[in-house]
Amino acid sequence: MANRVSSVGTVSTVYEERFEVTTDWCVAINNIDYVRQSLQPFVEELGMDDIIQKMCETRSPLEAQRCKETLQNVIANAIDTVKNKIVDLLEVMIKKMMPSITRFLIEGAELLHQDCSSMDRVMRYLEANLDTLYQHLNNENFSRTLDIVWEQLGEVLYELIQANLEKRRPPSFFSNLHECLKIMVRSFRQDNKDIYTSDTLKRVEYLLNLHGLETRELIHQYHLERWQDQQSITEPKMGLLTVRAQFIEDSLKLEIMNARNLVPTDSNGLCDSYVRAALLPEDAFANVEKPKTQTHSKNLFPLYDEMFLISLNHEQRRIPDGLIHLVIKDKDMFSVSNTFVGEAYLHFSEIPDTPAPISSLPQQHLPLSRPATI
Questions:
Q1: Which of 45, 59, 194, 312 has the most crowded Cβ, counting Cβ within 10 A?
Q2: DSSP assignment of 172-190
Q3: Which Gene3D superfamilies does this entry report, sorted A to Z (predicted)?
Q4: Is residue 73 located within the same domain as residue 27?
Q5: Over pLDDT 70: what percentage of the chain?
Q6: Count of CB atoms within 10 A of residue 177's CB?
Q7: Residues 96 and 174 in one domain
Q8: Best-predicted range by mean pLDDT among 39-53, 72-86, 186-200?
Q9: How many CA atoms lie within 13 A of 91 on its CB side?
Q10: In a domain, 219, yes or no
Q11: Of 151, 179, 212, which one is at a domain's C-terminal end?
């Protein structure tokens, strides 16, 4: 039955060759599904329970039970085999759609903001084929079809990413491809199910987001990931930095209080430390001062106890994913550069917006760390 429809649906024009889902495919899937649904009633019509009961009377209950379990396993295996045939046929059908989808996606990534019709074509192609399936398949098989579409789409997108990384495509290509994916998600994931149902698609979404970033955005994404890593530190081996911070309208008040258990950087087993604070992303706060504390010599538990008031404009105050980057360094009198001790981050979302005295706010103990990889 599957072999009969394998060559059905190919449409050729002078411009392209594409696959379209036809009712023949739906009939084949429904016929196989009918066989699956008929297996259990067919067994009941054969009177299996009566046969088992007679065997129990003429043989032994143990033999009858073994026979019943064997027959149940045979039936279950037969039903699973038919289910797998349905899945195989759906996968073949969706795989035939992928070359056209791939071509439309590449056009969309190259021309998304220049030619709106490039994305319209892939949407019309998907909608037409999925509508045919929706009209002729039952809910279970249609839902299974959507899952296969997303699974194979994830594989296609992953291959596209790898191929175009080798071609050194600009970030705009991957950003547009990411936008194409989001448009498809909004259109075909209206059932409140998890959008990224496969590990491949989750990986694809991450890679598209990553490679679609410009250099400055990529740098800030790195800092955001460092902040996220900081949340999972339960045993800070590099020490702790204690601060308090608050927003007062468009001003940021930062109190750098103390550090504890700093890693010794000098030969005497101590540290001559100071803290430098910077707001990120750097390009958005280029005109903002980067306050620095006094240096505290020969101390692994420095008490900085300094307050800074940083003026921001209205836009800077409301930048999403803004960060305070706090870096502790050891001042080296005989070196051009000072030694890096550790760093910590404070996200804008962790800073209260209140006119209350800063002394009334809770202290925030930030674990220090060093980047292992970039």
A1: 312
A2: HHHHHHHHHHHHHHHHH--
A3: 1.10.357.50, C2 domain
A4: yes
A5: 90
A6: 26
A7: yes
A8: 72-86
A9: 9
A10: no
A11: 212
Query: Which residue type occupies 155?
Result: E
For residue 187, the one-letter residue type is S
339-347: strand order across its sheet: 273-280, 323-330, 339-347
pLDDT tens by residue, 241-266:
999 999 999 999 999 999 999 999 87
- Which has the closest alpha carbon to 82: 138, 151, 33? 33
In this predicted structure, what is the pLDDT of residue 15? 65
Asked if residue 218 belongs to a domain, the reply is no
**Residue 221 domain-assigned (yes or no):** no
Q: Give yes or no: residues 205 and 251 share one domain.
A: no
- Please count the CA atoms within 13 angstroms of the CA of 143 that sit on its side-chain side: 8
- Shared domain for 266 and 299, answered yes or no, is yes
What is the residue-wise DSSP string for 297-365? -S-SS-EEEEEEEEE--HHHHT-TT-EEEEEEEE--TTSSSPEEEEEEEEEGGGS-B--S-GGGSPPEE
Considering the domain architecture, whether residues 238 and 125 belong to the same structural domain is answered as no
Q: For residue 196, what pLDDT band results from cuts at 50, 70 and 90?
A: low
pLDDT tens digits, 268-308:
888 999 999 999 999 999 999 999 999 999 999 999 999 99
CB contact set of 319 (below 8 Å; sequence gap of 6+): 281, 284, 348
Using a cut of 0.90, tell me whether the model's pTM lies above it.
no
Q: Which of 187, 212, 237 is the last residue of a domain?
A: 212
Whether residue 195 has pLDDT greater than 60: no
> Does residue 237 share a domain with residue 177?
no
Task: Tell whether 222 is covered by a domain.
Answer: no
- Taking a C-beta distance cutoff of 8 angstroms, is the pair 119, 112 a contact? yes
CA–CA separation, 50 and 104 (whole Å): 59
Three-state DSSP class for residue 278 = strand
Enclosing domain of residue 264: 228-367
Residue matched to tokens 């307050």: 307
- For tokens 């692994």, the residue is 300
